[in-house]
Amino acid sequence: MVDDQEAMDDQKWMARALELAESAAAIGEVPVGAVIVSGNDLIGEAHNAPISNNDACAHAEVLAIRLACKAEQNYRLPNSTLYVTLEPCAMCAGALVHARVERVVIAAREPRAGAGGSVLNVLQHEQLNHRCDVEFGLMEQQSAALLRGFFRARRKRDS
């Protein structure tokens, strides 16, 4: 059960993830932002950057995990929560499982490639040695609107 303080903290961290997603959109990246918190301390945050980094693996979640692991001086992130504006892909979900992230809070579902339960469920797969607690829907409408606007503008520009 989520208490009032935890719900307020969840709102705060997802709002930060949305700010990061907006930063990604501003530089032409798909607007996804990710924030990792341990306790109530920010330990890693990033936005999508595969285009600007020329790196197919530079998704927001992976970049945030890398920063959080450095901050914690540990390749595992027990007792941490990831806030992300779009459901992770299989690569990112696998990284979250390997990093032992405890909880994943997702704004919007990804019906084409989501690996948090929409298409695949890597985050809670019974044969893996770690399962993340997963919650969907926090600030979903804001995230979905940002994504729709980004892709609408891209289609308009490309036509």
Mind explaining what this structure looks like?
With 159 residues, the protein is of the alpha/beta class. 43% of the residues lie in helices and 19% in strands. It is built from five helices and five strands. A five-stranded mixed sheet has the order 2-1-3-4-5. Helix 1 packs parallel to helix 5. The longest helix is centred in the first third of the chain and has 23 residues. It is globular. The model has no long low-confidence stretch (mean pLDDT 96).
Give me a quick take on this structure.
With 159 residues, the protein is an alpha/beta fold. Helices cover 43% and strands 19% of the residues.
Keywords:
5 helices, 159 residues, globular, five-stranded mixed sheet, alpha/beta, 5 strands
Which blocks of ≥5 consecutive residues have pLDDT under 50? none
Average pLDDT confidence is: 96
Which H/E pattern describes the elements? HEEHHEHEEH
The counted number of beta strands is 5
| Strand content range | 15-25%
- Strand order across the biggest sheet? 2-1-3-4-5
What form results from the Cα inertia axes?
globular
What's the tally of helices?
5
Oligomer: single chain
Distance between the termini: 48 Å
- What is the SS-derived class? alpha/beta
**Percentage of helical residues?**
40-55%
Alpha-carbon Rg, integer: 15 Å
Largest sheet: 5 strands, mixed
